[in-house]
Design goal:
Elements lengths: L8 E4 L7 H10 L3 E4 L9 H9 L4 E5 L14 H11 L2 H16 L2 E8 L10 H21 L4 E8 L10 H4 L2 H10 L8 H11 L11 E4 L7
Parallel strand pairs: 1-2, 1-3, 3-4, 4-5, 5-6
């Protein structure tokens, strides 16, 4: 794949976290003009401000990250629930409300949500995080079919066991217990490389992917399939 995003302006949120660094690098290599933004989007007006400041763009990558709590389900507090949803769920409709009108007007545009496969397979001590990531995916599926008639596509990558600094930093990857878990749970036997994931994201944001509507694509080395 080469120059998949030539001539496109791409807004990437939380650009220093989760998949942000890899996305910015690979998208630029694929010809995009990358608008990297690192604003905390949990404030109610933040998303609209980020979209307004970016100016015109062709693609929005909603890269939303939050360090997952590991709370036993009976100990999850209202505050934890609200905090996680404020970081991962609430910004998404705000970003869409701000970005979509211009896309609908020109009948062209793409939104890609960098989500999590934790919403597709049960994980212990992850009820809050998984619920929030699940809400993201349900939103994408619904909005995808609504926007399709306007030639605007929204899709999501549901990932896990992908190399990134937020969820799999070097100290986690070097831990012997994590390496054993990787061999036990992931058919691929390794983390998906950040570049592999980012290249797939670039494809989904390109004109070659106009046919995908409200789709959720697992990228997890086969973890969901087990």
């Amino acid at each position: 794949m080469h120059n998949l995003l030539s001539g496109k302006r791409v807004l990437i949120t939380q650009s220093s976290e989760f998949m942000g660094p890899a996305l910015c690098e690979v998208f630029a290599q694929q010809g995009a003009q990358v608008l990297a933004d690192d604003t905390d989007l949990s404030a109610p007006k933040a998303a609209a401000q980020v979209v307004a400041q970016a100016g015109a763009f062709d693609v929005l990558v909603a890269n939303l990250a939050f360090k997952a709590p590991t709370t036993v389900v009976t100990d999850v507090t209202d505050d934890e629930w609200r905090t996680v949803f404020a970081a991962l769920v609430d910004p998404l409709p705000r970003l869409v409300r701000a970005a979509v009108p211009a896309m609908v007007a020109r009948r062209s545009g793409k939104i890609l949500v960098m989500g999590s496969a934790s919403a597709l397979r049960g994980m212990k001590r992850a009820s809050t995080y998984s619920a929030a990531r699940g809400a993201q995916l349900a939103y994408v599926q619904s909005v995808g079919v609504e926007l399709a008639a306007h030639q605007v596509q929204i899709n999501a990558i549901a990932q896990n066991f992908v190399d990134n600094p937020t969820y799999f930093p070097p100290e986690v990857q070097s831990d012997a217990r994590f390496q054993a878990r990787l061999a036990r749970e992931v058919p691929l036997g390794r983390l998906v490389a950040a570049r592999e994931d980012a290249l797939f994201a670039a494809y989904l944001c390109s004109d070659a992917a106009d046919c995908f509507v409200g789709e959720v694509f697992p990228v997890c080395g086969g973890w969901v399939a087990r």
